[in-house]
Write a structure and sequence with these properties.
Strand order of the largest sheet: 1-2-3
Largest sheet: 3 strands, antiparallel
CATH topology of the largest domain: GMP Synthetase, Chain A, domain 3
Number of strands: 5
Helix content: 25-40%
Order of helices and strands: EEEHEEHH
Structural class: alpha+beta
Number of domains: 2
Distance between the termini: 48 Å
Number of helices: 3
CATH architecture of the largest domain: 2-Layer Sandwich
Strand content: 25-35%
Radius of gyration: 18 Å
CATH class of the largest domain: Alpha Beta
Shape: globular
Length: 138
């Protein structure tokens, strides 16, 4: 039995306009609803999906001792026209550099999608969302 993962805790601080600085541990990033000072939240989510699956594929191929020299992941996402402009479809394209057998690549992609990619599995519609708030006087 695996050890339960601790909750992920992060914070966002409003910087004005549509910008927030996000922090998790010692790391920080800017999220910008206008995608000028940093990625928008939807861009960040798309980066998360492409990154999660790319990391899985690279890790699986390396653990299989395949001669992976390089890997690029391109993502194209279609979104709904009206609010909420949620993602409707993703297209991922992997460019594998190295003498890696096609069946190993296909297996790595399938394992990422079906078992390992936490981001992909977090996009499910059955996720619970609870919200709390407080109002502080200025």
């Amino acid at each position: 039995m695996s050890t339960p993962k601790p909750p992920l805790s992060l914070s966002l601080t409003w910087d004005g306009d549509q910008r927030f600085t996000g922090r998790v541990g010692d790391l920080s990033m800017v999220l910008d609803g206008r995608a000028q000072a940093g990625p928008s939240p939807m861009h960040a989510l798309a980066f998360g999906l492409a990154g999660c699956m790319g990391i899985d594929v690279a890790t699986i191929l390396q653990r299989g001792r395949h001669p992976l020299v390089g890997l690029e992941v391109a993502l194209v996402a279609r979104r709904a026209d009206g609010p909420p402009s949620r993602f409707l479809a993703f297209e991922l394209r992997y460019a594998i550099v190295g003498d890696v057998p096609r069946d190993a690549v296909e297996r790595a992609i399938a394992l990422s999608r079906e078992k390992y990619c936490s981001v992909w599995h977090s996009l499910r519609e059955d996720i619970t969302l609870s919200v709390e708030y407080e109002v502080r006087p200025s």
